[in-house]
Amino acid sequence: MQEEFLNKTGKAIQQLSGELILLSEGSRMPVISEFQEKYGMSRGTVQNALNYLKEEKIIHTVSQGRQGTILTTIDYQRLQKIVIDGPIRGTMPLPYSKTYEGFATGLYEVFQCAEIPLSMAYVRGSKDRMDLTSEKTMHFSIVSKLAALQAIAAGSELEIFKDFGPHSYLSNHVMIFSNPKSSKIENHMRVGIDHNSYDQQILTENATTGKKVEFIEVPSHQLIYSLEQGLIDVGIWNFDEIKDRKLDHLNYQFLEGSVEDDLSSTAVCVVHKDNLLLKKILMSVINETKILSVQKQVIEGKMIPHY
């Protein structure tokens, strides 16, 4: 009987915490009957849960007669710990570049400061990462702004939650040629394309507009190998990998400035648009300035990456 009481009260505490974390200090607290109706709890269970939150000084309330009960103080950080069942789950590209290593390190730093556990999955392909978030398998995804806007335009249930600005995702894209004498895409070339990556696909299609080329499906991370093996003539890829791996022997040309290329360099955090509770928690945790500062230190070699 005692165990059942504790289980009921514990569940009620978690559910009420999820409601209260969405409220602002100074707002009216819902009455007990509202919680009863929404969650199918008894009045006593709701009262026990509220008593716990008050006794632990997680919330403080003041009764103001007809105006109801006002939430004067809310300890959002402690409510977060009650609400979250296990770690926050995120996904981003495999950290093969210093830019990605710095970003992953920055993410772990801000979650550690908030004392909230973070579990990251490193998944290739922006479409796969956003699918995981759309299905709510993951709480958030880090992708380029170009990929996010493309997915949203196609009807995805995601929304851009945080925008980290230009060159936070990567520095530039380049066209890499297998022939050391080539400098532009020409008719009849074999062009590597990855339809699992919005960025690579869109930039490749833009760069080949008006050209009669043969598209060869190649996973983005195999583009350089495919070029070196003569399987394709040209492919568009992240310059950061060339720079970090010191692949200066490759023949590459920077893409000319375009809106799409700028958007593809910008990191954004996307979440399911209906998850108000998660957005409230992430709003207080994900500090763009802190993440970008850590990223810069990793890129400059002033901090050892950890993720």
Automatic annotation (TrEMBL):
Ranges for the YhfZ helix-turn-helix domain? Answer: 25-71
Residue intervals of the Uncharacterised protein YhfZ C-terminal domain: 75-307
What InterPro entries does the record point to? HTH_41, WH-like_DNA-bd_sf, WH_DNA-bd_sf, YhfZ_C
> Mind telling me which Pfam families this protein's record contains?
HTH_41, YhfZ_C
What domain of life does the native source organism fall in? Bacteria
**Listed SUPFAM superfamilies:** Periplasmic binding protein-like II, Winged helix' DNA-binding domain
Q: What is this protein called?
A: HTH gntR-type domain-containing protein
